[in-house]
Each structure stands twice: as structure tokens, then as C-alpha cells.
Write a structure and sequence with these properties.
The chain is mostly helical. Helices cover about 70% and strands about 0% of the residues.
Length: about 190
């Protein structure tokens, strides 16, 4: 794939992602905090849908030879610590790295501070990486994939994952319908 094609695909994917964020209202701080408080599941539904679609698209792309899998090593200690820090930051700020630019574009002034904090945190971590690396890399499982672990082709596992996510989404929608969730404003009061 040429650099131009990769850039074009990236722009297209970013546009689709931004459109989905805006239409689902997932970028709104109240929506993000509601998900973290387990009061609102629209964010989970949108992201699970993205995972299912992404897995299927990647399965098609790898099957056609347009892409190949290059998994990163599984560093369990780093993943758990980083996930806890990121999750706490998302819950406190009502923003995440994927939504902060959409918030800035929509006029949320607090998002500028979240962006600055994210850049400062990444810079701080960059300087501390040599000191933290021995701790964070203590439980390195190497590059593992479900396809390698089960000895099954990636496309089969991607379809299976998409079906399982579809079942989870169906159950989530029955328990917490999106129309009811979208009708509630950030305080949980029903909109007029």
C-alpha cells in the first residue's frame, strides 16, 4: 500500500469515526462520565460496534493481502497500570484521547486543559520511561494472538468475535434501549 493510499484511508476512517462520535454524542463529557458511572451504555455500544466492524474489516484486508497483523507484546503490568491511570483520567475529565479533539471542535473549553494534560503526561512518561521500564516490563507475555493460541485463521475468529459482540449488543439494547438513553440529558433528566 502506498503512503498516499494509507493517508487517504486514514482520513476516511477518521471522518467516519468523527461522524459516529458526533451522531452518538459519545464525545460529550456527560456521556463519558455516565458510562464510567454505569448509568449510560451508549459509549460501550458504540465502541463494541467499532470493535466488531474493525475486526471484520481487518479480516477482509488480511485475507485479501492488503494488510498484515503486527501485534505488540502483551505487557500485563504496564497494561493494568496504564489502564487504571487512563480510566481514572477519563472518569475525572469526562474526555479521552479519542474524544478530546471533538470536544475542542464543539467548543468545550475544558477540553483544552485535558489536551494539555495529556500532552504533559505523555511527555512526563517519556522522561520517566527508562526508570519505569524495569517495573512495567516484568510480566512480558510476548506477541500473542488468539489466532496463534487456538490455531484458527484470523478471519474465523473475527467473524466469531463479531457474532459474540452482536449478541452482547442485543442484550445491552434490551436492558438499556438507546432511545431512552439518548432522551436523557447529562443530569439524567428526560429531555422535553
Amino acid at each position: 500500500m502506498s503512503v498516499f493510499s494509507a493517508i487517504l484511508i486514514g482520513i476516511l476512517m477518521g471522518t467516519v469515526f468523527g461522524f459516529a462520535l458526533e451522531k452518538s454524542r459519545v464525545f460529550e463529557p456527560g456521556m463519558i462520565v455516565g458510562q464510567m458511572q454505569l448509568r449510560n451504555f451508549i459509549m460501550l455500544k458504540v465502541f463494541l460496534t467499532a470493535v466488531a466492524v474493525g475486526a471484520l474489516v481487518l479480516a477482509v484486508m488480511t485475507s485479501m493481502g492488503w494488510a498484515s497483523l503486527h501485534p505488540k507484546g502483551a505487557l500485563y503490568v504496564a497494561d493494568v497500570i496504564g489502564g487504571l491511570i487512563l480510566g481514572a483520567g477519563i472518569a475525572l475529565a469526562g474526555a479521552c484521547p479519542g474524544t478530546v479533539l471533538a470536544q475542542i471542535g464543539a467548543g468545550y473549553r475544558d477540553a483544552l486543559f485535558v489536551l494539555a494534560g495529556g500532552i504533559a503526561g505523555a511527555t512526563f512518561y517519556g522522561y520517566l520511561d527508562p526508570v519505569l521500564a524495569p517495573l512495567l516490563k516484568t510480566w512480558d507475555a510476548g506477541k500473542i494472538t488468539f489466532a496463534d493460541s487456538f490455531g484458527l485463521p484470523y478471519w474465523f475468529l473475527a467473524v466469531l468475535l463479531a457474532v459474540l459482540i452482536g449478541v452482547v449488543l442485543f442484550i445491552l439494547e434490551k436492558v438499556s434501549p438507546w432511545r431512552v438513553e439518548m432522551g436523557a440529558d447529562v443530569d439524567g433528566d428526560l429531555a422535553p
